[in-house]
Amino acid sequence: MSDGPTIYATEPLQVYLDDAASKKPAPGGGSVSAAAGALGAALVSMVCNLTQGREKFADVETEIVALVEKSDAARVKLEKLLQDDTTAYNGVIDAYKMPKETDAEKAARKAAVQAGLVIAADVPLEICRVAVEVCRLSKTAAELGNPQAITDAGIGAILGEAAVVGAALNVRINLEDCDYTIAAAAEIDKIQAEAAALRAEVLAITLSKL
Amino acid sequence: MSDGPTIYATEPLQVYLDDAASKKPAPGGGSVSAAAGALGAALVSMVCNLTQGREKFADVETEIVALVEKSDAARVKLEKLLQDDTTAYNGVIDAYKMPKETDAEKAARKAAVQAGLVIAADVPLEICRVAVEVCRLSKTAAELGNPQAITDAGIGAILGEAAVVGAALNVRINLEDCDYTIAAAAEIDKIQAEAAALRAEVLAITLSKL
After folding, report:
1. A192 to chain B, minimum CA–CA distance in Å?
2. Distance between CA A36 and CA A1 in Å, rounded?
3. What confidence tens digit (pLDDT) does each residue in A61-75 have?
4. Which among A51, A137, B14, B95 could disulfide-bond with A146, CB atoms 3.0 to 4.6 Å apart, if both were Cys?
5. Prediction ipTM score
6. What is the pTM of this model?
7. Nearest residue of chain B to residue A173 (CA atoms)
8. In whole angstroms, what is the distance from residue B21 CA to residue A152 CA?
């Protein structure tokens, strides 16, 4: 009977899906994008776990051990962002509830809304940064991992790119005109281009190894 | 202490992610693709639930009621496929364990493996079919739904397309030369082209309404 936020990692998968489908404010598209990225990171780890410790792949053991450390770390970050995004907009909601009678109140409210929007944009921006890393890791998994799990490496890149593009939409919708906006827009453009290129590369490697 | 398969809908989200990352045979990329599609379908339903019953959107009420019925149905199907895919390969595994001493045993084993592969390919093929429907429904959501939830409609299409491309890889890897293969390959080519076009269209609508 806590009034704190629902901790989705410990809730049944069905609850996360049902809450995403509902009119509840969270989880929304940002959290769901982080979930897609976490699923992609999990598949990269799976490829590593099906490669590591096998004599057949002994020559890439060091690279695979390093890769699974990175994909596990990316997954932990995305699992945290999946949760963070469910409360990231709370500051904006609270700011909109501030009084707006006097000019001073209006100015304070406007500043609080803008500060809230920067936080609300910052969480999906971080999702973009980690999700493009999932695409990079998928490429190494496709190149070096057990070819029997090649489709999992491919799907890792597909989901990493989907998480980037999805979260980027949620960065853009939370942007107001300010210095933060210009820097963030430039960064997500660059990340999206890299993710798109990586998805195409990893899919090409995957199809060549089917 | 049941020895039946893990029912992932009722397991914590964390367990699904951890099992996907592990070397366990399931869930793999096929199930994870279905999960991505289910997340996309959930976002379409969310857009509907944030539109339905509001005076401002009274003129599209009938279309939105029809849309949420379809997106809920697509999600139920993808939730089932997420589970089905975790056992779809069992028939192949069992077939590989069959004796292969005599010519008759070899022939029986080969036929059983091929029958198993058709089943293993059929589940992700069905994921492709339902996931492209998620892309179609996302387009209607982007066109008619509450514009405050426009990014959720966009992310619905992104995840629908990701699910199509991911599941298509798992169809292709389970195909052997047979009539089934030719028909399935043609169908997934067509579905992938439609999903890619829809993703681009829905993203364009989304960006125009941000």
Report:
1. 13
2. 29
3. 999 999 999 999 999
4. A51
5. 0.94
6. 0.95
7. B210
8. 10
